[in-house]
Amino acid sequence: MSDPTKADNELEPRLITETGLDQRLADIVEPVLIDLGYRLVRVRMLNQNGATMQIMAERNDGTMDVEGCEEVSMAVSPVLDVEDPIDREYHLEVSSPGIDRPMVRKSDFVRWQGHLLKCETSIMVGNRKRFRGKIVATDADGFTLERDQVSEGEEQNIVIPFTALADAKLILTDDLIRDALRADKLAKAEAANQNEAEDEE
């Protein structure tokens, strides 16, 4: 069995998924993304420019570029035309998750350990539903947050079960920007080396 925290596991399920129309859209586009070697981060219908369907996606190594966005857009458009899930005109927008990304898989918490996060839970965890702090540990069941603001009588560290998570997003910091750029550079170098090895075969 594959390791659920391994970042390149393309079949790793998302912890946070859509509801309603957004869920129907995710059910349509996710299989297309997987076939192309991408992972769905999030789908949302937004009331921008009339209506905009926003698809956030990334490669299994966590990277995404303009060419990737174009490839995803060209692959999902005909499928959406056939399925026709939206009863009005809309714009399709495909993007990377960005540096201050939504955290939707266990591997996201492993990959970005040591960085600041804000999250919300669906149930009370330690008398709260909203948290902000640094991810200091992750295991199969949840993650430990070192809170940057605690009230009297509260512990600095709190364990948040993945099953309680409703929403989570990285907070943009200089450290996060540096590490995201470094990770992107490494992934591109690995991809280039892999292409060279395939060319030599």
UniProtKB/TrEMBL annotation:
Residues of the Ribosome maturation factor RimP N-terminal domain: 28-100
Primary location: cytoplasm
Gene3D superfamilies, per the entry: RimP-like superfamily, N-terminal
Keywords from the UniProt entry: Cytoplasm, Ribosome biogenesis
Top-rank lineage group of the source organism: Bacteria
Any single Gene Ontology cellular-component annotation: cytosol
InterPro entries in the cross-refs: Ribosome_maturation_RimP, RimP_C, RimP_C_sf, RimP_N, RimP_N_sf
Compartment(s) of residence: Cytoplasm
Residue ranges of domain Ribosome maturation factor RimP C-terminal in the record: 103-173
GO biological process, one term: ribosomal small subunit assembly
PANTHER family: RIBOSOME MATURATION FACTOR RIMP
Family assignment from sequence similarity: Belongs to the RimP family.
Function: Required for maturation of 30S ribosomal subunits.
Stated name of the protein: Ribosome maturation factor RimP
Source organism: Rhizobium altiplani
Native organism taxonomy: Bacteria, Pseudomonadati, Pseudomonadota, Alphaproteobacteria, Hyphomicrobiales
